[in-house]
Amino acid sequence: MTPEIINLAIQIIIILIKTFVLVGVVMLHVAYATYFERKVIGHMQVRLGPMRVGPHGLLQPIADMVKSLFKEDVIPSQADKAIFFSAPVISFFATMTALSVIPFSEGFVIADINVSLLFVLAMSAISTYGIIFAGIASDSKYAFLGSLRSAAQVVSYEVSLGLSLVGVMMMAGSLNLNDIIIAQSHYSYGMFIVPQFLGFLVFVVAALAETNRTPFDLPEAESELVAGYFTEYSGFRFALFYAAEYVAMIAMSSLGTICFLGGWMLPPFITDIFPFLLNVPGVIWFALKVYLSIFVYYWIRATLPRYRYDQLMNIGWKVLIPLALLNIFITGLLKMMGFFRVI
Amino acid sequence: MSVESEEKLGHSTKDLVISMGPQHPATHGVLRLILELDGETVVKLTPHVGFLHRGTEKLHETLTYLQGIPLSDRLDYCSAMANNVGYVLAVERLFGIEAPLRAKYIRTIVSEMSRIASHIIWLATHALDIGAMTVFLYAMREREWLLDLFEMICGARLTTTYPRVGGVRNDVSEEFLDSLYLFTDEFPGRLLEYETLIDQNRIWLKRTKGIGVISAEEAINWGLTGPTLRGSGVSYDVRKHAPYDAYDLVDFDVPLGTKGDVYDRYRCRMEEFRQSNRIIRQCIEKIPKGPVMTPDAPKVTLPAKDRFATEKGLLPIQMGLMRKGPAAPAEGEIYSAVEVPKGELGFYIVSDGTGKPWRLRLRSPSFVHASVLSRLSVGHLVADVIANIGTIDIVLGECDR
Questions:
Q1: Which of B355, B401, B294 is nearest to B65 (CA)?
Q2: In Å, what is the CA distance from A323 to each residue of A58, A97, A199, A320, B326?
Q3: Does position B200 have pLDDT exceeding 80, yes or no?
Q4: Which pTM was predicted?
Q5: Which 109-148 residues of chain B touch chain A by CB within 8 A?
C-alpha cells in the first residue's frame, strides 16, 4: 500500500473516532440537559424536580430513554408512512450534523470547513423539514396547524438570525467558526458581544424562535395545539423529536458562544490578570459558556408567557430584521472609519 | 382569502373544522368546541356541553332536602363550600329558618376561602394556558394551604359538605382561626409574587388587552354574572345587592373593570383575592361566641348526638328525618342566589309540601358563560380562544350539572 492510502485511512479513522466521541458526549448532554431543565425549572417553581430514580433523580434521563424505547409505537392509520417515518430522522440528523462543524476546543472540530457558519444555519433550516413533514404526514389537524406555524416561524426568523450574524462576519472577516473565535482574541475585550451587542440581542431572540422555545414555542403550544407537530408521535420517534429540540438548543448555544462569547478562549483582559487560567483546557470554558446560555433558555421558559402567532410574526419582521439591518449598518460604518483596528 | 381573489384564482377555499376537546389540555375539563378556522382566525365557534351531565337536578327530586347537600359539592368542585352555602341558604329560605350569628360568620369565612381557592385555580390555569407556567405552581402552593385549612374544619379537602340547613356541622376551633389569620397575613405577599410575573409582563399584556371585549350592555344581555360581568364595569354582586350570611356585617368593595377585555377581568379577580382576604380577616376579628346550629328548627336538623343520652324519643325523630326528610312547610316556590366565585349561583326550588323538592332548578354561571364563548372568540385567533376560555372561568361540573 502506498503511504498516501495509509495516511487517508488514518485520517478517516481519526474522524470516525472524533465523531463517535462527539455523538456520545452530545447524546449524554442531551439526556442530562433534560434533567438539568427539569431541576432548574423545578427549583424556580418551588418544587424539587425529579427525585425518585437514583440519588436526586440522577438516573431519570436514562429511565426516560429506556421507557421511550419500549413504548408502543403508534402510527395513525391514515398517516403517510414513508414521510411519517422519515420526519423525526430528518429533524434529528440535521441538527446533529450542525454540530460537526462546531469547534469545541482548540483543534477539536470534525470538519473544519470555510463556510461553517453558513453550514450551521443551513442545517438548522433543514431540520424544519422534519417538522413540516411530521405535520403533513400525521393526518391530524393539530399537527398540521403546528407545522404550518413552524414553517412560517422558521422562515421569518431564519432571516433575522442570519442578519444578526453578519456583523460578526464583518468583524472577523471570515465564515469559518475557528477563525471567528481567533479573531475575537485580537481585541482587548475578547468577545464580540461588546461591539455587537445589538446583534447579540437579535441573535438571542431569533435563536429562541428558531429552536421553538418559550416564548416562541407556538408550533408545540401545548395549551392550544396539544403537542403541535408531534401530537401523533409516540415511543422512540417522539424521543427523536424531543432529542432534536435539545440538540438544536445546544447547537444554537454553541453558535452564540462562538460568535459572541469568544468560544473556548477567555478574554485577554482576564487572562492578563489571572494567567494561570490559560492552563485550563478550552473545552471547559466552552462548556461553561454553553451551559450558561442553556440556563438562560430555561430561565426564560420559567418566566415568560407565550406570544400569539401574529405577534410573533410582527416581532420577527418589524422589530428584529430592522434592528439587525441597523446593526449591520453601524458595524460597517465603524469598520470603514477604522474603529475595529486589531490591537 | 377574500371572495374576489378566490374567484380570480379559479378555486375556492374551505374552512378548517377542528374539534377542540373534550380531551384537550386547555378546555378546563370536558368542554368541546367545534372551531371553524380560516387560517388561524376563528370564523365560527360552537360550544358543546353535557359530557359531565350527571342529572343533578333530577337527583334532587329523589333525595330529601338534607341529602341534597353533598350533590352541591359536585357542581363546582373548585369551590365546594360556596355551593354548599348556596344550597343550604335556599333550603333555609324555604323552611323559613335562620342560622345563628356564629354559623353565619363561619359560612362567610368558608365561602370566601373557597372564593380564593377557586380564583387560584382560575389564575393558575389561565396563566398556564397563556404559557406562564410558573404562576401555576406558585398558585397551587397557596391552594394547598387552603385545602389543608378546609381539612382542619371538616376533614375533607375537596368535597366538603360542611354547612348544614340551620347552621354548620361543627364549630371551628380557635386553632383553625389562628392558622387562617396567619394565611391572610401571608396571602397578599403571595399575590404580589403572582403579579410580579404577569401583571406588567409585556407578553401577558399583549395576550390579554383588547381580547374578548364585551360591552356592559351586551354582558348584561348575555346574562353574565360574577367577575366576568364586573370586568365590563357593571356593579352587580349578590353579596352586596342581596346580602346573605354575614356579608352585610363586613366591609368590602366590589372591584370593577372598564373595558371588558381579558385583562380587565383578570384585574377584577386579582382584586377580589384582596377583598376576600379582607372579608376573612374582618370575620375572624368579629366572630361572636355561640351555637352553630339553630335551635328553632327541631324538625329540620338531626338531633345532636349528646342529646340522646338525656332525652327520650329522639330516635324516631331521627329515623323519620333520615327516611322522609323534613317536610317542607307548604306548597310554594323560592329562588335563592349566592355569589359563588364563578358568578351568581341560583337555586329555584318548587315544593309540594313533602320532604323532597318537587323540582329543583340550578342557575349555574358556568353554563351561561360557556354560551358567550362564541361571542368573545369569533374573529380572533386560535390562541385567543384559549385566553377566552380562561377568562370566563368555567367549571364543567357546574355547567353540565
A1: B355
A2: 42, 30, 8, 5, 76
A3: yes
A4: 0.84
A5: 127-134, 137-138, 141
pLDDT in tens, A34-83: 888 888 888 888 888 888 888 888 888 888 888 888 888 888 888 788 88
Helix (H) or strand (E) holding B337: strand B331-340
What are A329's three cell numbers? 449598518
Chain B residues touching residue A214 (CB < 8 angstroms): 131
Q: Which of B394, B292, B278 is nearest to B340 (CA)?
A: B394
**pLDDT tens digit string along B374-398?**
888 888 888 888 888 888 888 888 8
Q: pLDDT of A296-325, one tens digit each?
A: 888 888 888 888 888 888 888 898 889 989
Domain boundaries, chain A: 1-70, 74-336
A302: closest chain B residue by CA: B134
Which cell is B60 given?
Answer: 334532587
Cα separation, B115 vs B268, in Å, equals: 13
Asked if A45's CB is within 8 angstroms of B131's CB, the reply is no
Helix (H) / strand (E) element for B386: namely helix B382-392
Nearest CB partner across the interface for B197, out of A221, A303, A306: A303
Residues B319-327 have a mean pLDDT of: 74
- The tens digit of pLDDT for each residue in A142-154 reads 888 888 888 888 8
Q: How far is B240 from chain A (nearest CA, A)?
A: 35
CA distance A136 to chain B (A): 14
pLDDT of residue B9: 64
Which residues of A fall within a CB distance of 8 Å from B207? 305-308, 311
pLDDT in tens, A99-124: 888 888 777 777 778 888 888 888 88
ipTM of the complex: 0.79
* 3-state DSSP assignment of residue A160: helix
- Judged by CB atoms closer than 8 Å, whether chains meet at B134 and A306 is answered as no
Residues 6+ apart with CB under 8 A from A304: A214, A215, B131, B132, B201, B203
Question: Of A306, A309, A319, which to mutate for an interface test with B (greatest number of B Cβ within 10 Å)?
Answer: A306
Q: Give the pLDDT confidence of B224-238 residue by residue, as tens digits.
A: 888 888 888 888 888
All structural domains of chain B: 3-48 (no CATH), 56-400 (1.10.645.10)
Residue B1 — pLDDT band, cuts 50, 70, 90?
Answer: very low
DSSP β-bridge partners for residue A161: none
A positions 130-169 inside 8 Å of B (CB): 141-142, 145, 149
Can you tell me the distance from the alpha carbon of B52 to that of B293, in angstroms, rounded to the nearest whole number?
34
- Residue A301 to residue B241: CA distance in whole angstroms: 44
Q: Which residues pair with B344 in a beta bridge?
A: B339
Subunit contact B207:A306, Cβ cutoff 8 A: yes
Cis amide bond preceding A215, omega within 30: yes
What is the reported pLDDT for B116? 92
A288 touches chain B (CB under 8 A): no
CA dihedral sign of residues B209, B195, B246, B363: positive
**Mean pLDDT over the full length of chain A:** 83
